[in-house]
Q: What sequence folds into this?
């Protein structure tokens, strides 16, 4: 399947409720091919990526990004998912092969593998100014419930998040998707109650998506007899933002002593990107060059500092 998903936004006719639906099967399948994941981590990462796509769909600027960080203390360790303003999403898990037996309901134990003793951090970077960082305690580690709780605690918009990821018996991904249902400012209580009632009787989202139900079908199920219309649709894909230049920069910025050690070992430096699995190798000569550049930079900044100290105070200059 192609590395491509679709995000469709619907509004009720009165403008008081918004449904953002994302179909992400191709995106999560592609992610599975870039990582070696256990079945339960496939479900966890699928939910995390879909949540990032949904929350990132309201970003306006190309240089903006939305980052979700789950730190729940489970055997999978931390999970990070990032979506940018162009709809590109990426994610990684500390221990991607961590596995647990099914939970009491016989389902993949996402809440167990992520853990529930910790926090969800949400970083929204609009591409200018300081990024906005919000965080809440995890409720269940099941992802959707934690996103819903995040909105309840730290944002103004009342929101319900639902995520549905199906994993085949052989561990491959069958289907993935999810939605955010939001009440917009001025929404009457009667609408809130009606939607709450409808969502509470909605069939399992993963079953609906696995059956091939599309965005319009889901909107019809959520809204029922409330008039609604699709107002826009965008594409999403799994794409990493890494490059040789970025990793060269991050190796160069480690401590000067560590850099000297790596240069001295004459083995070069190898980095594997945690988000996409790409390997970048820097041969010994290049590490030498990086070490020399770093030393020159440090010397230049020390000289600048000294020059600053010896410059006479401004009031004495003519
Ligand atoms: Zn990468």
A:
């Amino acid at each position: 399947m192609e590395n491509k998903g679709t995000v469709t936004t619907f509004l009720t006719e009165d403008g008081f409720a918004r449904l953002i639906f994302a179909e992400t099967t191709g995106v999560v399948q592609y992610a599975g091919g870039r990582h070696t994941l256990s079945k339960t981590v496939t479900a966890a990462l699928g939910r995390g990526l879909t949540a990032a796509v949904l929350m990132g769909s309201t970003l306006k600027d190309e240089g903006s990004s939305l980052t979700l960080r789950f730190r729940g203390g489970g055997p999978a360790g931390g999970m990070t998912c990032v979506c940018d303003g162009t709809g590109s999403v990426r994610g990684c898990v500390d221990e991607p092969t961590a596995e647990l037996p099914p939970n009491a309901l016989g389902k993949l134990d996402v809440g167990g593998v992520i853990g529930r003793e910790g926090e969800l951090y949400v970083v929204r970077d609009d591409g200018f100014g300081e990024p906005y960082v919000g965080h809440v305690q995890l409720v269940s580690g099941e992802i959707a419930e934690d996103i819903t709780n995040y909105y309840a605690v730290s944002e103004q918009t009342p929101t319900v998040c639902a995520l549905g990821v199906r994993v085949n018996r052989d561990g491959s991904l069958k289907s993935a998707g999810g939605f955010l249902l939001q009440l917009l400012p001025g929404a009457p209580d009667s609408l809130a109650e009606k939607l709450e009632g409808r969502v509470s009787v909605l069939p399992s989202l993963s079953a609906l998506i696995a059956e091939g139900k599309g965005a319009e079908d889901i909107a019809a199920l959520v809204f029922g007899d409330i008039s609604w219309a699709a107002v826009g649709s965008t594409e999403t894909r799994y794409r990493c933002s890494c490059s040789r230049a970025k990793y060269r920069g991050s190796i160069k910025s480690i401590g000067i002593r560590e850099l000297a050690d790596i240069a001295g070992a004459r083995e070069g430096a190898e980095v594997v990107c945690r988000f996409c699995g790409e390997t970048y190798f820097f041969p010994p000569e290049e590490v030498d060059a990086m070490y020399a550049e770093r030393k020159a930079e440090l010397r230049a900044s020390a000289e600048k500092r000294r020059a600053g100290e010896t410059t006479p105070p401004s009031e004495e200059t003519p």
Observations:
- Residues 240, 242, 273, 275-276, 278 surround zinc ion (CB under 6 Å).
